[in-house]
Structures are given as C-alpha cells and as structure tokens.
Design a protein that fits this description.
This protein has about 675 residues and is an alpha+beta fold. Helices cover about 15% and strands about 35% of the residues. It contains eleven helices and 34 strands. Strands 2-3-5-4-6-7-10-11-12-13 form a ten-stranded mixed beta sheet, sandwiched between helices. Strands 27, 28, 29, 30, 31, 32, 33 and 34 form an eight-stranded antiparallel beta sheet that branches. The longest helix is centred in the first third of the chain and has 15 residues. The chain is globular, with a radius of gyration of 25 Å.
C-alpha cells in the first residue's frame, strides 16, 4: 500500500495546460506542477503519447506533485500528434519525436521558473525516449531516469523476440490505433478540436505494416537503439525495471555499456513504477528520485553514488502460479557490472536427459500447443499474466534434468544455452526454458530464451538452414536473480514451438540436438556478506491523486485457453485495457474494452492467427466520441496478411471509416 503524503517542503501549484512552441510553429501541450512562489528550480520532464489530459491523468498527480513538493518543476508533455498537442504522429520513437523533445527541453530551460537544468523521467515509452534524447545531448539535459525501457529496439522490445515475430507486435499496433485518432479536448484547444481530430483520422494507419516490413535488425530498428553507440550518452543514468517486466535485461546492459555515472535497480515488479506496484514489495521510489535529482541538479551529496552500482531483488523459489501479488526474496547488490564475482557454471546437456557428458543426439518436433502456458510477454501483474506449471509444455519438449541439488544455488545474470544442432527444414526456431523443479515435480519457469535459428549468427544478416548440416548457436535468456533451494532440481526444456509468444515457423520442424556438445551456462552468484548491510528503502509514498470514480467495467473474459480435442483448434484470449473511469474534475468519462485472441490448429502452423477488437468511448459534456477498430494477422507460407478496420462516430453518427488489407512477405521467418 502506497502512503499518501500531504506535507511537503514546498506548496505546489498546478497549471492544467501550457503550450510549448517548437521551431516549426507546432505547439505541444504540457501540464505543469511547480513549487509555488519558489525561486527558479530544475525541471523534470515526462514525455508520452498517452494523453496527459485524460489518458494518464489518474496517475500523474501522485508522482509529479510529489516531486514538485520537493523543489522541482514537473512537466508532463504530450508527444506531437497525441493528446492536446498539435501535429501528427507517425510511429513510435521517431527522429521527429526526439528532435521535438530536444526543442522542448531548451524551451523549458529558458523559462523564468526553471533554473536552466532539465531531467527526464519515464516508464516504457517515456523511458525509451529519455535514453534516445540523452543520446542527442541537448545542452540543458542533466540526467535521466529510465524505467521499464530498453536500449535495443529490435532485440528486446515487443516486436521481434530473438528474430521471431512477437505476439505483442500486432496487438500493440492495434492498441495504438485505438489511441492515435482520438480527439484533443475542446476545453484545452478550443474550437480547433474538430479540425485537429479530422486530420488525425485521415492520417491514421496500422503501424504493424511498417514493423512487419522490417523483420531484420536494419536501420529502421537501429534508429533509437542507444546500444548502437552508448558513448553518445553523456549524462548520469538511473536505469530501473522489474523481473516480471519485459525490459529487465536492458538494465545490466546499460550498466555494462555506459561510461557515465550510473545506477541500476531491479525489483520483483511488473511494468510499473516501483512505488505503485502490482507485485510487492513496493519501495519508496519517489524518495530515490529526489535523492538522484538532488545529487545531479542541486549539488547535494545524497550518498546515492556511494551505494553499489547494481541492486536487485534476489527472488526466492515459489510454486508455479499464473499470478503473484508478492515475490519473497531479499535485496542484494554488486559494486560493478559486469561483476567479477559472477562465475559461469557449464552444465552439459546429456543424451540420457540429464546434465551429463554422455554424447549422442536427441530430436524433437514440438506440437503447436507448446507455449500455451507461456503467459504474457510484458506483464502488468494482472491475473494469469505469469506462466503456470511447466510440466504440460515440457511434454512437448526435450527436457534435461539435474539431480536434486545438495545445496542452494543462486544465479544473477542471463543464463545461456550453447547449442549444437541440425534441422530438417530451412526455417526453424528454438525456445529454451530454465525451470525450477520442486520435490513434488511441479516446475516454475525461471527464464526463457527464443531464437529464430536463421538468425543464429546475425539478426541483421540471417541465412536459411541447410537440412542435415550441423550448426552452433547461443540462445540467451532474460537476466534474472533466482534462488534454487537445496533438494530442488534444475531443468532445461527445448521446443521448436512457443506459441502464442512467438509466431510459428512455416512448417513443423524436427530439431536434432547434439548432446554433450550442447550445454546450459548458469551465472552463479556467491554470497555477499555486505548485502545484509544495504541501506533499506523508505516506505512507498506519493502525493494525493486526481479524483477519479471507477465504474463497473464492461464484462470481458479473463485470460482463457480453450482446446478442442476433436478438431485440434486452440484459442488463447487475452483481455486488453478494459475500464470505465469518470474524471470528475474535468467532467469526462472514458470507457474502454479490448480483446486479443490467438488461434492455431494442431498440425498446421499456417493456421496461426491473431484477432483484436478495441473500443474507446469518450463522454464529455455535450459530445460522445467512439472509436471502434478490429483487426487480424494471419499468414500463408510466404506472406503475413494484415487486415484492419476502423470506425469513428460522434454522438452516434459515423464520421470516419477506413479498411486496410496488406500482404507482407515473410523474410525467412
């Protein structure tokens, strides 16, 4: 439970909207919290496309008013073409977005209420563009705090996973379609709102068509991936994520790649700020933000740079479950990363199904139901987000099992599978899972790694497989901190399918693993006595939030898996963005429902399909706007097929309609 704080060093005033002018005449809309009557202070910028007026209103006040109460001017800025900002939005993380951010920072620094210094803070999209804008080196930017983001848009975002098409690629495009054509608020932009809305509707298109046309790690994905040149970032960086988030592995990469003052923090959390979590324990995150910003913009030695570089939640072993409200464990730390304390333990995959040196081969052609228990790609901590007991998926996989551990083992880092293999098809993928097997046989997934085997040498220059030829590949799993207790077993499971997390290969594949030559590499972390003396985090707190009334949401299915044992059809339903929220202070109500369905029929990988349905309704004093869009992603042996339909209405009358149909060639995928 996050405590609500009401007493602050500075009283806070809130300015509902300020327009930030850009050099080309476009104006971006911002909400401003600042200390009342204070001398000029540093500014903290959060820069998002999610509509500050009504999209993130319910959560912005708690963070930004808190930081303003500690002597900062906080700005929540709508990206060009979103919310109440002018212009049009073309894609995520564009060059235009980054340049606009640099111009906005210069404008903020020049205001009489700002002392000329600006920081950026953000989670997800706002964490991405904080890194990207830092790499452009605007003069007034002094530090960034990036949460739940990535340095690599290709390898570790939601579009391509190990070179395979991610389940969230189409789903996320559909989600953004349900946002991009919503109108600005007339109370902010005035009578121009309808003209701006019409321009957005006409400009709308499915972003998935661009994302599918770039199936390799080409310049499209290199743009905005700061890992291409870490040296471009010159300001201090605080990188944060959670083990239940999709982006945790970027934190250790940033620590290893950057050459600036930096700190890394990973808790047990899902995709959330660490003070407002769905997976406990929460921490006093906003106090840490104040410490960091005081250190780099107010010249105060807060002690944060005397603490270890990398602090993580070492997760205890837990029984498998599809939802965790808390994860037991403890805080541990490393003084630097990579840490010389971490050692790699090689465990060969034996032909006897054990971790042994016994040579030989084992083959697998996984059924298409393997992966139905994979959970979400990026988790928010909702019910059924996590993978459940892995024994069912193990039934369609090659499994290698250790003896019961004579003593506990702890790992910190990215487990890897060094694989020697051959295959009977030109296109194939492999999914590797690391499991914690309890004495009762139940198996909890600790890590997962996926690789399109045509990308075994390069994501930029993939090459088809030659059937029957031997190859080597490394399958890297996500970073993790995990405690394997004595008496438990360590297991590796390998499969040629992991649907719906990634799209299947065009044909069923038989993969042959060369045992003895293939191995699991575990990053072993020895005990560190100093962990017992780490400074404890403060309790979580925030300012009072904006008043919101949550009404009963429209009925939607929870996550559900159905299998027809007669015809082999499998359906996986995921609910999306379902709520009914009344914002009483601006007399507005939003109602949203969304669903994403994945289908496949056993034995036929070309039957894979994703269907989305999104409705967003905005009710204002005298106007009701409704967006309704549906879409599908299907395939044949040579193409991905995208279909989208969008309908918009005002007060029940349709004002816009458009359909799309695209066939996009599969690029060895």
């Amino acid at each position: 439970m996050t405590n609500v704080r009401t007493d602050f060093p500075f009283p806070v005033e809130v300015i509902e909207n300020v327009f930030v002018p850009l050099p080309d005449g476009t104006r971006l809309a911002a909400k401003l919290w600042r200390p009342k009557g204070a001398v000029p202070v540093p500014a903290i910028l959060e820069y998002l496309p999610y509509r500050k007026r009504d999209g993130t209103r319910y959560r912005d006040q708690g963070m930004h008013a808190y930081l303003a109460g500690h002597g900062y001017a906080c700005v929540r800025l709508d990206i060009r073409g979103s919310g109440d900002s002018e212009g049009l939005i073309d894609d995520e993380y564009t060059v235009q977005e980054q340049l606009d951010g640099c111009d906005a920072i210069a404008w903020l620094a020049a205001q009489d209420w700002c002392d000329g210094q600006v920081a950026m803070i953000g989670i997800s999209w706002g964490g991405f563009n904080g890194l990207q804008i830092a790499a452009r080196q605007p003069a007034a930017l002094k530090t960034i705090i990036t949460v739940g983001s990535t340095d690599d848009r290709y390898a570790t975002d939601i579009h391509w996973v190990g070179g395979c098409l991610s389940k969230d690629n189409f789903d996320w495009s559909a989600t953004m379609m349900a946002t991009n054509d919503l109108p600005p608020d007339p109370d902010v932009v005035g009578d121009r709102w309808r003209t701006m809305w019409q321009a957005r509707m006409a400009h709308q298109r499915p972003w998935i068509t661009d994302w599918l046309r770039h199936q390799r790690r080409d310049d499209f994905w290199k743009q905005g991936s700061v890992c291409e040149d870490f040296s471009a970032i010159k300001v201090p960086v605080y990188a944060v994520s959670g083990w239940a988030d999709n982006y945790s592995e970027s934190v250790p990469r940033l620590l290893a790649g950057l050459d600036v003052p930096r700190r890394g923090l990973i808790g047990p959390w899902a995709h959330s700020y660490p003070h407002d979590v769905t997976v406990e324990p929460a921490i006093g995150w906003l106090q840490e933000v104040v410490r960091w910003c005081d250190q780099w913009m107010k010249g105060r030695d807060t002690g944060i740079m005397q603490e270890p570089m990398y602090r993580v939640w070492m997760q205890d072993s837990v029984p498998p479950a599809t939802c965790y409200r808390t994860r037991p464990g403890r805080w541990v730390a490393e003084d630097c990363w990579p840490s010389p304390r971490i050692t790699t333990h090689r465990m060969p995959l034996g032909a006897d199904g054990r971790f042994s040196d016994i040579a030989g081969t084992r083959s697998i052609c996984s059924p298409l139901w393997v992966g139905m228990n994979s959970g979400e790609v990026g988790r928010y901590g909702d019910d059924a987000d996590w993978p459940g007991d892995q024994r069912e998926d193990d039934g369609g996989s090659l499994v290698f099992l250790s003896d019961p551990l004579p003593e506990a083992i702890e790992i910190l880092g990215a487990p890897q599978i060094a694989l020697r293999f051959s295959c009977d098809k030109a296109f194939a993928l492999i999914a590797a899972r690391l499991n914690d097997v309890r004495p009762d046989g139940s198996a909890t997934r600790v890590g997962v790694g996926i690789l399109n085997l045509t990308h075994r040498d390069s994501h930029e220059y993939p090459t088809p497989l030659e059937p029957g030829q031997d190859y080597d590949a490394v399958v890297e799993m996500d970073d993790i901190a995990h405690h394997f207790p004595a008496g438990h077993r360590i297991a590796v499971a390998l499969s040629t399918v992991y649907y719906p997390m990634v799209w299947p290969s065009p044909e069923l594949v038989t993969l042959t693993v060369h045992c003895g030559a293939s191995a699991l590499h575990l990053p072993i972390r020895p005990p560190r006595p100093e962990d017992d003396r780490l400074r404890p985090f403060d309790p979580p707190e925030e300012a009072a939030q904006t008043p919101v009334v949550h009404h009963a949401s429209p009925a939607t299915n929870r996550r559900r898996i159905t299998r027809d044992l007669l015809n082999g059809k499998i359906v996986v339903d995921f609910p999306r963005w379902t709520y009914a929220m009344e914002m009483t202070d601006i007399e507005q109500t939003q109602i949203s429902t969304g669903t994403c369905r994945h289908e496949i029929t056993e034995g036929d990988p070309l039957s894979a399909a994703t269907y989305t349905d999104n409705r967003v309704e905005i009710r204002r004093k005298d106007t009701t706007i409704l967006h309704h869009s549906t879409g599908s992603l299907t395939c044949d042996a040579t193409h991905f097929i995208v279909q989208m339909q969008v309908r918009l209405s005002e007060n029940g009358q349709e004002v816009f309609a458009r359909d799309w149909h695209d066939r996009i060639p599969r690029d060895i995928n």
